[in-house]
Here is the input.
Amino acid sequence: MGDKAGGKGGAKSALKTPLSSGFELNNGSTKSRKGMNVQFEFEDRGGKRDKAANGGKNPVKKPTPPLQLRVEQELPENVTCLMDCEAAQVLEGIQEQMVVLSEDPAIKIPASFDKGLQRAKRGNNYTSLQSVQEVLQNLKKHGVADSELCLIANIHPESADEVFSLVPSLKGKKNKLLEPLNSALDELSKIECSA
Amino acid sequence: MFLKAQLQWNVIIPADNLDAKGLALQKAIIVRLMDEFAAKKATSSLGYFLAVTSLDKVGEGRVREHSGDVLFPVTFTCLTYKAFSGEVLEGEVHKILKHGVFIRCGPVENIYLSHLKMQGYSFVPGENPIFMSEKAAKIEKGVKLRVMVIGVRYMEAEKEFQAVANLDGDFLGPI
Here is the structure.
């Protein structure tokens, strides 16, 4: 998060690395004292690349691969993803009990509960949770992960292009998914509340 | 993204809450669990703790020497919220600065969208500063934006998450 990537359309890189890291400098670059930020101009040498502190990063900008959702790899055991509409149902149920719960001063409600509830309600634009789950289960049979299903439900996409653009991890299965996805989006649009 | 997690925690009940009838004991366990749950606030793996949804199992109590308290292993299900890298979410702008805006989404208050990730938008200073695009689209306080999260950081001391977002991309932008 702290690195800046410059050089759009060119061959410049801005590196914040002290000289002690031992990378080679190109002609026309500026040596600086240890710890100061420097800007380097790299020539495109075709096959040969300068070594940089971060391990030989190609100074000519390649298109960066789109950021992939990797929720399943990051989640601990016994943890599953929920769609906003599912979470809204659970949190609204708790809210209904809130009057009773708040009468007992010993019972503490987490500080994030209200914000979580508002968030879930805002994302819940469907008339029937069960129908959403049924529609998305069909996509699951085609290899769509739970986190990807949740993302699709939450963003209310209008087209398959929108899904593939916002969930790049599905692009690899585009041919296989296009038809079932279009069908699912059609079904979801029928059960969506008008805003 | 909302998460449902099944966790096992140890809940310690002071000796004076132990009741032969058992009903007060169950309540004491639940109250103590909810107290600890609320105090925990957030973890790096699960995000912000929102609510305990069910008490699944209460194990056998073990008496702790010296204090006389009893420790119960408790299995419960809870709801949490966490932002993930690569996730697309819709947040509300709540602060405008010269070099970017801050967006909130649910319990995550500090999602930073840099002006470098808002191509086509430029800062318009004033009493109510805004970002304005070439096509006259405005980003100001209260505007809802669809962004992609590109980085998330958990700060243990404050028990808060910070995130960095991107507006440059198809189907991203003001809603």
In short: The longest strand of chain B covers residues 2-13.
